[in-house]
Amino acid sequence: xxxxxxxxxxxxxxxxxxxxxxxxxxxxxxxxxxxxxxxxxxxxxxxxxxxxxxxxxxxxxxxxxxxxxxxxxxxxxxxxxxxxxxxxxxxxxxxxxxxxxxxxxxxxxxxxxxxxxxxxxxxxxxxxxxxxxxxxxxxxxxxxxxxxxxxxxxxxxxxxxxxxxxxxxxxxxxxxxxxxxxxxxxxxxxxxxxxxxxxxxxxxxxxxxxxxxxxxxxxxxxxxxxxxxxxxxxxxxxxxxxxxxxxxxxxxxxxxxxxxxxxxxxxxxxxxxxxxxxxxxxxxxxxxxxxxxxxxxxxxxxxxxxxxxxxxxx
Length: 314
Fold this sequence. Notes:
The chain is of the alpha/beta class. The protein has helices at 15-25, 65-81, 110-121, 150-160, 175-185, 227-238, 257-263, 279-282, 293-305, and strands at 7-10, 32-36, 42-46, 54-58, 86-91, 125-129, 144-147, 165-169, 188-198, 201-208, 215-223, 243-251, 268-272, 287-290. The protein has a seven-stranded mixed β-sheet. Helix 1 packs across helix 9 and helix 2 runs parallel beside helix 3 (110-121).
């Protein structure tokens, strides 16, 4: 595979992940200059010929989300106006995904708005990872490939060789995801019943299932402030669990997340590099970061070749 086949660009959101992806593909990142004006406006200049080429932009929409979203849209526009044959946005973390429906009167559906912005800007396909809810795919009028980090995380869990393992869903909404983990690991499923009084604040109410004498693995799509997870850890230990672990695809880790993890009795938190984890947060000894670069790289290769990506959804 040579660089004449397609081009991979990276925004500033997670350049190390983009570099690992092109390394897997045997390529180098394509040239782009991105800088900020003094008033905060973003300027993008593509520095190589993209005419009639398939291009891929790697840009997770993580913190600072609004800047990274605008940067992605400007990159799409620059490539479209440079006559790229097709533009695929590789968005390992889809920002605003939790605003996927109206939960009260007079509120936006921001996940749909973002989908419209990406489409109107000129993207022809979206490659993403573990959307908060699968129906977000329907917000787009272009093809969406929603991959799962599950195979990468499950491989790591198997290598841990945890005895008496039980999989835990942190809420009713995550049951389907947790059940898929439990099925592949051939173990039982437990559900945490909680009541959320307001955003980022959760009160655990009840444990549905048996964790006494077991080692529990909480499975979620993201860890934001870690409040829900740490409350779950307490509830599981109070219900007789020997040890508690957690895993997720997206390490948002905002606000007091790392402090809460360090102060909790959780043994290990397994995440992927879908979001760039800052150096100070990487210092958390309980945090294990797995690479999804081979998964995304293989998907990019198959999308460009026009071959099936179905086996990557397992």
